[in-house]
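Hey,

Quick one before I head out. I ran the complex with pyridoxal-5'-phosphate overnight. Inputs first:
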Amino acid sequence: MGRNIKKSIAELIGYTPLLELSQYEKLLGLDAHIIAKLEYFNPNNSVKDRIALAMVEDAENRGLLKKGDTIIETTSGNTGIALAAIAASRGYKFRTYIQDRVSIERTKVIQAFGGEVIKFSQVEPYNRIMEETHGDFIAATRALVDVILSKEKNIFFSYQIENKINPAIHEKSTGPEIWRDTDGDVDILVAAVGTGGTLSGAGAYLRKKKPLIHIVAVQPGPDSVPTDDNPEPDEIAGVHRFSDMPPDRIPHTFNLDILDEAIAVETSEARTAARAVAKSDGILVGTSSGAVLHAATLLARRAENKGKTIVVIFADTGLHYLSTDLFTESVSSV
Ligand SMILES: Cc1ncc(COP(=O)(O)O)c(C=O)c1O
């Protein structure tokens, strides 16, 4: 028997397991199979480990990063955690600009890896841009990039909403893993959209293998996005609305053409589903996974989906939400 000892966290990324939510299906009397891809099995507990490693390796290969340089990103948390860990393990510094409502666990984890965390509200003029755009992450990121790139040296801005490596790594890893572990028995793919990288990349691979696969994007419902009347709603961390948005508000990493359907889910529905699967199957996931599960439940209840296999991407761990009220409110029925 040979030794099996990894030398770097980079070697622990990917090959996450698929788990059928058997008890959840039984409890709700569903006739379809809901199979969760548990991305919290990545070393830093989210799907973003994949893109962090891939973006850094690509920058190294292109000579854009040298020891001591600072990697910079704007993030709702998970990409920051992932990049901070990769930066620590490879001798880079890391700085992230985060949305103000990001949970305290994420900030603390990034800091534990030696990363610097700056809130958007602490930065001018992005502060103003966030206000003007109701906290539009993409507009704020683009403004930030223009200034940082023009003034700073020895930095690499990984730019997850523009970087083609983001969907590409999901086409190379996430999609093939789903195909292999289902043995090609996958009818529907459901994922929440932030940068759109996961759905666009994994979806592209699976579409090539199975042209009739049904690809479903989950986005926040109207009550879960900031508006003039409701500037600070409860949001689903990491997930952005794309319907009815002008083209410049859609990340370049999101290929809308891959979609067969979009389902809007409110934060309260997402939380209810996340709480339900914690109790039914012992799976602790974040709000976006709850949103994806709620959408999958709606799909499973459709007569035409009887007996079908629905693969859902569970993007991160519920442990990063313990300071929020994700798991503290009383459970209502799904
Ligand atoms: C918790 C969570 N879920 C889902 C997503 C969406 O993933 P993607 O950016 O690949 O669309 C993100 C991305 O930021 C996230 O942080």
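Residues 137 and 292 are 21 Å apart (CA to CA).

Talk tomorrow,
K.
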